[in-house]
Amino acid sequence: MGWLDALLGRSKPVRPNLDALFALPSALVTLEAATGLKATGTGSVAFRAAEGGAFAQAERDAKALLGDRVEESDDSYGYTWLLVRRPPEAVGDLVTELHAVNSTLEGAGFGPSLLCSIVALAGEDGRRLSIVYLYKRGTFYPFAPLPGQRRDNALELQARGVLAGELPLEPDLSRWFPVWGAPGL
Asked: InterPro entries from the entry (predicted)?
C-alpha cells in the first residue's frame, strides 16, 4: 500500500486463508457441545461464473474432484453453488472437499469469483445454523435462518460467543450477510 492509498483511506484487501477452513471440524465439536446443533453433512461453495474456456475448465476440474457427491445450482443473484453431501460424521472430509473446490478455482486465477463457503448444522428442535466463510474477508460468521426470511439473531450471537476462540470471526456485523436459499441449509 502506498502513501497515497493511506492518505485517501484505502486499504489493502485481506488475503483469504483457505486453510482456516480446516479449523471448522474442531470448532463444530465445540459448537455442538454448547448448542446441541450437529453438522448435517452438507456444505456448499458459491462463486460467480466467468466467461471463457479457462473458467469452464477450472469448474469442471473442481466438480471432478467431488464426483457424484456434488450438485450444481444457480441463485437469483447470479452465483453458482456447488453443494456437497457427506455423512454427518464426515465433517473433516466435507471441509477438505470444500477447500479443494476453493483451491482449484483460486489456483486457476479465479479467486476473485469466489463468494463464500458454507457448512450447515441443525438441531433436533428444528433450529438451523450455518457457518459461512467469506472468501474476500478471510473470516467466518454464523447465519441462522428462520421461516419467512427472518434470522435467529440470538442463536447467531450465541454461536459467535462459542466460536470466538476457534475461528477468525467477522467483527463487522453488517457483513454478516444472509444467504437465503443457499443449497444445503
From this structure: PspAB-like
